[in-house]
Fold:
Amino acid sequence: MTAKTLLQFAGVASAPSQLSDAALIVIDAQREYVDGRLPLAGIDAALDEIAALLARGRKAGTPILHIQHRGRSGGLFDPGTQAFAIVERVRPQAGETVIEKGLPNCFAGTDLKARLDALGRKAIILTGFATHMCVEATARAATDLGLKTTVVAAATATRDLPDPLTGATVPAAEVHRNALTAMADRFATIVADGGSIPD
Structure:
């Protein structure tokens, strides 16, 4: 039997959101993931993809929201270090919203939903890091909040993880694919790259 997603069982068409009616969200595009303690596989290519989407979104007048993870002093994403900084090539421009968070789900403990409501946006396009952590947590939460979510695969990335049962290393590419597959089952439309997002 051919595998099917829950969305397919429900007869829901999986189509990406458009820049014209969505908000573009960039999650945790911070130095910690580039040259800090959590370097991600494929981070440079993902940042290039985000930068290209930002350029298109800015031209189209799409609302853009940047999420920035605030860690603890001495820990990951320490706000007193360069690890906390947003990477230069995807840095917010004047007038773009920056929301700090302390948990993987970008809606938890933040005003992200209120800001989307104020913008009148019921659809979001997610980019950023890491695929299996903050991107997936946010996509799942967005479903609970009645939002339509699109995730741009090439604009996300993750890292190797230890298998919790065997201790063997699960390669980043597999973690990435599995996270995208899980989201596609019920929580998001997954597109390969930014070129798949219509204006």
